[in-house]
């Protein structure tokens, strides 16, 4: 396998790649956040025929949520293969176009009251299309950012992928909170929920324009010119599975604390929609605040040190956090500080994570490899988070289930992260 030292590119090209890669992630996670925040409203509009219960409808909504995640690995393989063959730029242009159109279409769908049993099937079909395009987004965006990154700054550049995830989730939460404030509950359930999905159209148009102005990465251009061979299939599969194990705690804790939390607070702890959204905004603010510093720190002390610290902290704080949220006598300010801190801890995993994955794969398979590792981990541990937590709380009556889930997955991630070499952050991309 041919290796070369990281080569500096003009700063303007690096910054342009950073923005173009980030904006697609924002659109993707804005939509996934909106779907999670409006889970109870979507359940009522699409999955509640006469005689169906609210809990049953919510489980079906999360099942649709999980299904989209399980199509992410398919999208990662499909678009990843394309991106490793024809380039990052054209593939990322296609990905953001598909995501934008599918998300906008959700805002135009007829509900169960209008279309009957066809409504949830149409919603599920669009979620599948979203899953395919989202699967192709991460690998391409991270490959783009890290291959354009200046030497010694891959952690910082890769962290912007995760930072725009936080911005997307915050954008979705902000729009949801605004609508919940200015609209009546009836209007929100009737038509207001459509607005966040329709807003994807102008956002996606901006993302498309930025990517059309993008250049191909120097690393891919060099690898394509040299016709560098791909690694053996067995070696690639082992790297993908190890990568998925290293980020499973990030996937599970991130979605548990940042997306599933609103519906959990409403269904298990009887919080209002506004209270749940405020908690989620605080958690995502903590997440956003720690991501870029964590990525930059990993360029100095290594990915392993920062990510192991984050995973261990999730194990330690998960149960106390849930217990605090359940305590009716605890001050609201303390609860807010706790969810902010929980989000910040997840940021320690999300900041260095993209660069860590990029460093695991050579250029000729980087889009496919890191995309599949991320998509597989998220399909199992993020996509199923809402379904697993909601179903287990419903069956067992134990409202501590989210804490057990986040802590257990992070404990496994610690073991996988300890296999990282301390100097991986200093080695050139191969």
Give a verbal description of the structure.
With 430 residues, this protein is an all-alpha fold. The protein is 80% helix and 0% strand. It has 20 helices and no strands. It has helices at 11-37, 39-46, 54-70, 72-86, 88-106, 112-115, 118-148, 154-182, 185-192, 194-198, 200-212, 218-226, 233-269, 273-301, 303-326, 332-350, 353-358, 366-381, 385-396, 401-417. Helix 2 (39-46) crosses helix 3 (54-70).
Question: Characteristics of this structure?
Answer:
430 residues; single chain; disordered N terminus; mainly alpha
Biggest sheet overview: none
Order of helices and strands: HHHHHHHHHHHHHHHHHHHH
How large is the count of helical segments? Answer: 20
Cα-to-Cα separation, first versus last residue = 8 Å
Strand % is under 5%
Shape: globular
Radius of gyration over C-alpha positions, nearest whole angstrom: 21 Å
Mean of the pLDDT scores?
Answer: 86
User: Residue ranges: pLDDT <50 for 5 or more in a row?
Assistant: 1-6
Structural class: mainly alpha
Q: Determine the fraction of residues in helical runs and give it as a percent range.
A: over 70%
Tally of DSSP β-strands: 0
Strand and helix map with partners:
Blueprint: H1 11-37, H2 39-46, H3 54-70, H4 72-86, H5 88-106, H6 112-115, H7 118-148, H8 154-182, H9 185-192, H10 194-198, H11 200-212, H12 218-226, H13 233-269, H14 273-301, H15 303-326, H16 332-350, H17 353-358, H18 366-381, H19 385-396, H20 401-417
Helix pairs in contact: 1-5, 1-7, 1-8, 1-11, 2-3, 3-7, 3-18, 3-19, 4-5, 4-7, 4-18, 5-7, 5-11, 7-8, 7-18, 8-14, 13-14, 13-15, 13-16, 13-18, 13-19, 13-20, 14-15, 14-16, 15-16, 15-20
């Amino acid at each position: 396998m041919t290796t070369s030292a990281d080569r500096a590119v003009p700063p303007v090209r690096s910054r342009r790649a950073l923005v173009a890669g980030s904006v697609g992630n924002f659109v993707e996670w804005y939509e996934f956040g909106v779907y999670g925040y409006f889970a109870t409203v979507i359940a009522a509009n699409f999955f509640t025929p006469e005689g169906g219960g609210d809990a049953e409808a919510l489980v079906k909504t999360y099942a649709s949520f999980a299904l989209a995640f399980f199509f992410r690995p398919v999208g990662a393989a499909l678009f990843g293969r394309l991106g490793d063959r024809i380039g990052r730029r054209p593939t990322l242009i296609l990905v953001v176009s598909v995501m934008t159109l599918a998300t906008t279409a959700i805002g135009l769908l007829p509900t169960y009251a209008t279309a009957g049993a066809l409504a949830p099937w149409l919603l599920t079909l669009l979620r599948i299309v979203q899953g395919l395009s989202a699967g192709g987004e991460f690998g391409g965006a991270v490959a783009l950012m890290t291959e354009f990154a200046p030497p010694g700054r891959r952690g910082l550049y890769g962290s912007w992928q995760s930072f725009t995830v936080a911005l997307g989730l915050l954008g979705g939460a902000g729009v949801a909170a605004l609508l919940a404030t200015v609209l009546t509950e009836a209007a929100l359930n009737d038509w207001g929920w459509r607005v966040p999905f329709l807003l994807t159209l102008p956002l996606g148009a901006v993302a498309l324009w930025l990517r059309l102005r993008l250049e191909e990465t120097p690393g891919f251009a060099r690898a394509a010119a040299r016709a560098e061979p791909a690694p053996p299939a067995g070696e690639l599969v082992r790297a993908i599975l190890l990568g998925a194990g290293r980020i499973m705690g990030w996937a599970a804790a991130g979605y548990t604390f940042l997306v599933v939390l609103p519906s959990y607070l409403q269904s298990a702890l009887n919080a209002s929609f506004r209270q749940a959204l405020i908690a989620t905004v605080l958690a995502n603010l903590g997440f956003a605040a720690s991501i870029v510093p964590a990525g930059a720190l990993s360029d100095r002390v290594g990915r392993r040190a920062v990510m192991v610290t984050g995973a261990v902290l999730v194990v330690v704080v998960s149960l106390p956090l849930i217990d605090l949220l359940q305590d009716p006598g605890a001050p609201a300010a303390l609860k807010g500080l706790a969810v902010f801190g929980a989000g910040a801890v997840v940021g320690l995993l999300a900041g260095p994570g993209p660069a860590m994955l990029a460093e695991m794969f050579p250029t000729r398979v980087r889009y496919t490899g890191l995309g599949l590792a991320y998509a597989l981990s998220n399909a199992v541990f993020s996509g199923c988070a809402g379904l697993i937590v909601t179903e287990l709380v419903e069956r067992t009556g134990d409202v501590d289930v989210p804490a057990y889930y986040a802590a257990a997955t992070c404990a496994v991630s610690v073991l996988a992260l300890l296999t990282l070499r301390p100097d991986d952050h200093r080695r050139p991309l191969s």
